[in-house]
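Researcher: Here's the sequence for the chain we discussed earlier.
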Amino acid sequence: MMSKVRTSIVFVSTCLLQACGQDISKTDYFPLHEGLKWKYSVYDDASTDFKSRTFTVENIGNIELQDKYFDMPVHIRRTSDGTDYYILSAEDGIFRIGQKRLHEKELTFDSAERKILPLHKDFASGNSWYVESRTYVLRGSALDTVPEAKEVSFEMEFEIVADNETVKVPAGQFEYCIKVSGNASFDLYVDPKLGYQTINIEQHEWYAPSVGMIKLERIEPQSIGMFKGGTVTFELEQFSD
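Model: Thanks. This is the structure I predict for it:
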């Protein structure tokens, strides 16, 4: 079961901090300052053409919610697919608490708060957390009658596995990055011959101080029964305000 916790923090190189013109703490690995923007290059080897695309994230600002989250620091992050994510920054971590898609009028709260990162002071504690997830790229044949993988939800266990990595992405080279790794296993009916098989999924994320997420890699099975998967990678291309 996922524990109830909350937080948010990030860091970047001096030149990026000056370029953004905002004072972001070097212990902040998930900055929520209004106006910050991230542009990612996305590579998906599960598609047939292997073309890359771009994906953007922007901090829209704070929002005042009622009831459970009354008078609590909730921020909105908007992605290029038209989804607003509601992020809670608390003394025990950073959490996603809900989302609102482009065609929806009202916020839909998550069934449980989804922890993104613990506080900076807890990075080295070896603690882990669970987040509900679904497949990114694993899909069945269009002609088969097996359940669609994207309809299956499962829990991924995340933990910080490194806190001093140097990572190079299109936006530049970042030092003192933390690496967060997640793993999940669940059973899926893959075809009439193989029946149910255990699906193993990995996710790796890198966060730079004062910048936030600079890289994400999701690894799903390449081929199993009637299903095909692959790897999707997000790499930071630009960070600005």
